[in-house]
User: Fold this.
Amino acid sequence: MVNYNPKDWFTFIFRIHKSDTIEKLWPMLISMAIYSGIISYLELEVWQLSGKGGLSNLSSMHGLLGFVISLLLVFRTNTAYDRWWEGRKQWGALVNDCRNLAIKLHAILPPGNPAREFFRTMIPNYAFALKNHLRNIYHPADLEEAHDFEPTAVSHDIHVPNHLAAKMLQEVHTLYRQNIISGDQLITLNNDLNTLTNVCGACERIKNTPIPYSYSAFIKKFIFIYVMTLPFGYVFSVGYYIIPMSVFIFYVLASLELIAEEIEDPFGRDANDLPTETISKNIRKHVGEIL
Amino acid sequence: MVNYNPKDWFTFIFRIHKSDTIEKLWPMLISMAIYSGIISYLELEVWQLSGKGGLSNLSSMHGLLGFVISLLLVFRTNTAYDRWWEGRKQWGALVNDCRNLAIKLHAILPPGNPAREFFRTMIPNYAFALKNHLRNIYHPADLEEAHDFEPTAVSHDIHVPNHLAAKMLQEVHTLYRQNIISGDQLITLNNDLNTLTNVCGACERIKNTPIPYSYSAFIKKFIFIYVMTLPFGYVFSVGYYIIPMSVFIFYVLASLELIAEEIEDPFGRDANDLPTETISKNIRKHVGEIL
Amino acid sequence: MVNYNPKDWFTFIFRIHKSDTIEKLWPMLISMAIYSGIISYLELEVWQLSGKGGLSNLSSMHGLLGFVISLLLVFRTNTAYDRWWEGRKQWGALVNDCRNLAIKLHAILPPGNPAREFFRTMIPNYAFALKNHLRNIYHPADLEEAHDFEPTAVSHDIHVPNHLAAKMLQEVHTLYRQNIISGDQLITLNNDLNTLTNVCGACERIKNTPIPYSYSAFIKKFIFIYVMTLPFGYVFSVGYYIIPMSVFIFYVLASLELIAEEIEDPFGRDANDLPTETISKNIRKHVGEIL
Amino acid sequence: MVNYNPKDWFTFIFRIHKSDTIEKLWPMLISMAIYSGIISYLELEVWQLSGKGGLSNLSSMHGLLGFVISLLLVFRTNTAYDRWWEGRKQWGALVNDCRNLAIKLHAILPPGNPAREFFRTMIPNYAFALKNHLRNIYHPADLEEAHDFEPTAVSHDIHVPNHLAAKMLQEVHTLYRQNIISGDQLITLNNDLNTLTNVCGACERIKNTPIPYSYSAFIKKFIFIYVMTLPFGYVFSVGYYIIPMSVFIFYVLASLELIAEEIEDPFGRDANDLPTETISKNIRKHVGEIL
Amino acid sequence: MVNYNPKDWFTFIFRIHKSDTIEKLWPMLISMAIYSGIISYLELEVWQLSGKGGLSNLSSMHGLLGFVISLLLVFRTNTAYDRWWEGRKQWGALVNDCRNLAIKLHAILPPGNPAREFFRTMIPNYAFALKNHLRNIYHPADLEEAHDFEPTAVSHDIHVPNHLAAKMLQEVHTLYRQNIISGDQLITLNNDLNTLTNVCGACERIKNTPIPYSYSAFIKKFIFIYVMTLPFGYVFSVGYYIIPMSVFIFYVLASLELIAEEIEDPFGRDANDLPTETISKNIRKHVGEIL
Assistant:
């Protein structure tokens, strides 16, 4: 995630950050400029079409469909942002959950019990394993060793977060059978242990389910046809100014689609992605403080 | 579900996927082209109406109602998408729930207890039975045998997911009466067992409740009249260009309605439907890893 | 509720269903046509106002306010639809709840215990009683007898769903005192018993709370003035075509308000109302299968 | 709350209810009419500005900003309505909660136990106390006496709903210590007792937190400047018709802001406010029926 | 937070509050006026461009993109407001939670037990510590001493709210081991203790996660280019009136972005921020009344 000061307008407007959409769009913007230039040249100089024909009024179509395309892009923006924000909420829930688990286990486990050490290591391990799992990798160096858990011994084929959650739950039920955790305390821990798996499932859902294919295909086709037909009619009223005008309109519409694509899957390493690495480190720090 | 790379614009724009709306709409698009052509020919050549009459200003009506139709289609898109996404969330909840059940039963049941085998089979069976139930079929080959459960013996008349949930709950309460599951552990399992039935009910609700009839009828009538009256006025300003223009406008409006219809019931086998088959297989894989 | 195939466009467009808004609006549509005709005749033939005066530009007001009225109607549509859909969700929750109750009681109660019979009858009775309660009637023939419950003996004055819920809860606590239901099992049943009353309260809330009076009055006044002033200005540009144009615009705006009014209270017997009768029957069927 | 039949259009359109915005706005509407009249007179008769100058095109600014102002007012409407509806939901939750408490206590407490009488009085007392608390008054006559509770003895300084909730919780824990309420039953009562305080807190939050000051100030300034500059440009195209036109536009924009202000705090005695008085009485009636 | 009377329009419109956006924007508004003046002077007087060229129709681009920019700003407004309102809800949840904790502990703990004193001090301490934590400070003078807790002894490096929550939870589990709090009572307290940490985590999430960088950068670039190009085309139709017109349009668009930036992080000391100081004091008052 980019850390930034939202109030510094100057930087925003004049600096082109590497995650800016201009960075990715500029070849298409130049093609767009050339394309509009050719259309204008043909219509105005070669064929010398007069502005009285029907073609010059085609722009009324762009006016009519301007609502639809704007609303569709807002729909696209909203759904993409909702996933990004839901992803953030899930990681926020993970943070809360790890803290609650640590606080409760600290109050329940007697001082010196080796299970304290086990949970101090394993709770943050879960966060790191989930972070990597959502990037489709398994990186043992991120995890720390605990009694009965050896990061490098974990097979790459299995679902690592599930494996860690199962280990923690087994430890809790073992302590319950040893009467170190009472039945009432087990009940109070239950929800927190469930949440680990719920967060993992919700993040997988966000990652694996982009917006339905039909919408994605339709929006792209719509933008393409809309922008490609733009110069036909407008060239008669604005002349060669159609070149910056269609470049700017294309920039606006395509940027919205591009940003939506990027933030839709918020667990990678893109500039707008969630700081899962930092959150995992904070979990390790705070759990260490408490337990 | 179509697996696709949302960043590959070229394919999106030029390839016509079998689930594209153009595939379904082309006969209507051609009819629309012929219809606009006839209207234009009649108005311009046969009746030779001049562009000064009131008819040429009818297009102001389309401008005024352009907002309403756009906003209605966005309402339609939002409600359809919400069902699709809620369906996905419910199946995500099922995944989480099956994992939590497996993780807990793994920690609770003593090694070697035959109930482990029972739940390892029955939890994924529930997912497969639900998938088929939502497609109105019962397909015993998808389910696996367990002690006390024989897929081919299940009657086609009954509600299969309910039947499986009842079997699992009965097993849990039998283990509780045998003191293999303690009272505290029963309480921690309760929510997970409830969720099975809640997911099933929510999916049935989405499947059985399309958008109210009045909206569906009104939106279709509105699009039809809107597009049919489009050439009357615009023909005077754009001439024969009205043909591609009304085809494109019709394509945009009808596509939105068509996609909404398709994703509204997300449990079938359409290109945009949810991958319930794959999810069920993953549940079987992950429950097998844990239990 | 109307059962329909959302993909059958032809029927939607050309058939006028009895729940269509045209069915209710046609007297107003005809009045609107006559009214616009008179205004046009007066302005064009009697007073022979020229299209140069200020009146002909009054249509710019309709353009400006076109946004506001569209957005207001979408607000109206969204809030009405949300109530309809929340009503559906509540009945879906009732279905889930009845199934969960039945599944659990089936696992808890020993075979042959008379309480099985009691709950097999009373759980579906609750759904039927709620359905009738939301229609302000009490219809004993819908309910079935159980030991200690005689439908015809219930007073019409009392709140019947509460009465049934109290009976079921009393039975559960009696079984608890008899140690047939253990304390742990009581805790797992608690939520399901609460939900019965929660669903009832939520449905009463939806039924008794229409959109605030001020909005309802304001939207109707706004539509009325908007449509009534429409012919004044537009008649100069579209001539007598103003008649179908203002009829169509009135049809669109009034339909949205009319549909919203109808689906706002979804528990009656209107064409768009929820199928509470069918849902209640399904609850009786499924509870009977399980218990 | 005004009880009304949403389908009676005639009354809505022609009757001016005392809660109608026209009732409050008419002095401003008249000022607006005079103001537009003066501007028109000056521009048309005194300075005799021709419609060719730049001023006559200023109306394009109103077109451009028409979207923004409409969308802002919809934002305002949505947030105000959400508070009103959330307030209604909270009171609905209170109703459900009081019923569930009564149903459970009826099943738990032995017949004749004096605690039945206590809760029969105190549960409805809570609703009445909350209703008055949200109107910043304490009105002992609304409350009924119970053993150990004397309405007139309550100090006006303290937080009365908290005081009542604390009394009820104390009674429950006393019964628990006397073994009249078992531990399992205590757990099932816990959530219902929490909800009393949660409803109170949520209502206080709605009441004490209007929309951020900046939005309120900005929307009012924006409407004011927008409407004040309206006659400058439009007078050239519509002439003296600008007077009704700017009055109507002002009526529409200001009404939306006015209604939003009124329903934002839904716990008072305004025409659109929630019927908290009636709901409290219903709670007393239904709790009396059950307990 | 500014306390204000939302019905006092006069003050809103004519008084410029220090938190008004005009206060911050005026240097930019003056620059905008100068810039438009220069462009107008160049186009009209120096280059004497006629209004027939293409440049004068560039304003159609601003019309087309007017939808997009309005909808984007509404998206921005909605997301910022949602964070503000979620922040308020979280503090409301904290209020409810502290009251519920106090009410329950009052009913559970025997009179005179020193733990009463401990919780009477520590529950409000948590609110004050959270308030300061969200402002990145630690201010021991806000906290009160309790047995086993010395505000000035707390290290500045650790996470203070976590530290306080851990202390409270430890006290509860100690009382549980001493049988002063029974197992059933422990279960009923569990949720309330979890909520403390959940509120803290949710507030940290809101504070640390502004809207994705790409949107923030894109919206600012878009507003900038949109407003900068505004005078080019409009100058031909409105003449020097372009100066107030572009100043006003810039004022509207930039204000929306500015307000959104301010309320996005609602835990500081800005005029629109939440009254966390007052809420904390109320918690101390109400907990003191109860416990």
In short: Chain E has a mean pLDDT of 87. The first helix of chain E runs from residue 9 to 14. Residues 81 and 263 of chain E are 7 Å apart (CA to CA). Chain E touches chain A through 60 residues (CB under 8 Å).
